[in-house]
Specification:
Blueprint (H helix, E strand, L loop, with lengths): L2 H30 L3 H9 L2 H4 L40
Protein name: Transcriptional regulator
């Protein structure tokens, strides 16, 4: 067997294992979710949840004095920096 054939067989084996693993997970989820569809449909079909009005909340406007923006729209954060080097006193 050539290296190419060996790689091809290895990929096929890995693909088969992955497919079996996915099938096993699907079976487990289907067993767990057998009763879910009935409960979900019952919860959705309740009249109280469908006819409930959406509450409207007031939008709070940002304070203009709090914003510090220059003409380009960039935020300004101007803080004076300390000079770290020392100068001789002479």
């Amino acid at each position: 067997m050539k290296a190419r054939e060996i790689r091809k067989l290895e990929r096929a084996r890995q693909h088969k294992e992955m497919k079996a693993y996915c099938k096993k997970i699907d079976r487990a989820f289907s067993r767990l979710s057998e009763g879910c569809s009935e409960r979900v449909s019952r919860a959705i079909s309740l009249a109280g949840t469908r006819q409930k009005e959406v509450e409207v909340t007031a939008v709070k406007k940002n304070r203009i004095y709090y914003r510090d923006v220059n003409s380009l729209g960039n935020k300004i954060h101007a803080v004076q920096r300390m000079k770290l080097s020392s100068k001789p006193l002479i």
